């Protein structure tokens, strides 16, 4: 898969933060909502009534090279009726993966190990954010999953999440089992 282009200011026809997919077109699921929401999108009700022309027209304009048609967003808040962006998808996926690791058996059967490996190896193939999937593919090849038990798996997953955190300029998480269990299984002790 070719490395997708991310608009980081070098491409003047794209708004900052807009990410292109492997097809060279703006990739909605690869981009944070605040970076693709057009400023002049008419307001909808919370139930999503009165569809706005915003994103479809924006994407079409962007794909056609009409970047100037898009102005900066006037709000970073992603309305409930909108499809997930890269951040909501990420949070939901990490929640699922870390929680599944936290409840994975201490001594998994061969069948459980095989299924966990299948789940993890399917992510780079199926994850909808293409550049996230591409980075994860490289990451998993360099750091094969440790599915030998829940403590090892929780640490392995925490370290993969930290790889993304570092790449995005976010703080690293303490990958001790005490901290991952506190966050994803037991809650704070007091
Ligand atoms: P998240 O990073 O989503 O974390 C959710 C919660 O997990 C945090 O609040 C914290 O309590 C806890 N946490 C944080 N770090 C760890 C850790 N190491 N171990 C255990 N718990 C932790 N976004 C991009 O913009 N570019 C990418 O290339 C990209 N790649 C991704 C690849 C994968 C496989 C996934 C699942 C997501 C990816 N994302 C990517 C999304 C990104 O990781 C975040 O989910 C998103 O930016 C939202 O971040 P957040 O600050 O809300 O917290």
From TrEMBL:
It catalyses: 2 R'C(R)SH + O2 = R'C(R)S-S(R)CR' + H2O2. Pfam families: Evr1_Alr (PF04777). SUPFAM superfamilies: FAD-dependent thiol oxidase (SSF69000). InterPro entries: ALR/ERV, ERV/ALR_sulphydryl_oxid_sf, ERV/ALR_sulphydryl_oxidase. Residues 82-184 form the ERV/ALR sulfhydryl oxidase domain. Residues 1-20 are annotated as: Disordered. It is an enzyme of class 1 (oxidoreductase). The keyword Zinc-finger does not apply. It is found in: Mitochondrion intermembrane space. Its cofactor is FAD. Residues 1-11 have a biased composition (Polar residues). Its EC number is 1.8.3.2. PROSITE patterns: ERV_ALR. Keywords: Disulfide bond, FAD, Flavoprotein, Mitochondrion, Oxidoreductase. GO terms for molecular function: flavin adenine dinucleotide binding; flavin-dependent sulfhydryl oxidase activity. One of its GO terms (cellular component) is mitochondrial intermembrane space. This is Sulfhydryl oxidase. The lineage of its organism: Eukaryota, Fungi, Dikarya, Basidiomycota, Agaricomycotina.
């Amino acid at each position: 898969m070719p490395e997708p282009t991310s608009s980081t200011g070098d491409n003047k026809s794209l708004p900052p933060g807009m990410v292109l997919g492997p097809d060279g077109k703006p990739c909605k699921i690869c981009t944070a909502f605040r970076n693709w929401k057009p400023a002049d999108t008419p307001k909808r009700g919370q139930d999503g009534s009165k569809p706005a022309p915003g994103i479809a027209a924006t994407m079409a304009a962007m794909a056609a090279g009409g970047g100037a048609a898009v102005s900066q967003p006037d709000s970073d808040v992603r309305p409930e009726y909108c499809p997930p962006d890269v951040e909501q998808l990420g949070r939901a996926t990490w929640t699922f993966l870390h929680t599944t690791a936290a409840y994975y058996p201490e001594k998994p059967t061969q069948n459980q190990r095989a299924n966990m490996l299948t789940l993890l190896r399917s992510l780079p193939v199926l994850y909808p954010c293409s550049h996230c999937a591409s980075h994860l593919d490289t990451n998993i090849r360099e750091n094969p999953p440790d599915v030998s038990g829940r403590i090892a798996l929780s640490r392995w997953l925490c370290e993969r999440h930290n790889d993304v955190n570092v790449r995005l300029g976010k703080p690293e998480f303490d990958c001790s089992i005490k901290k991952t269990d506190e966050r994803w299984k037991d809650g704070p002790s007091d």
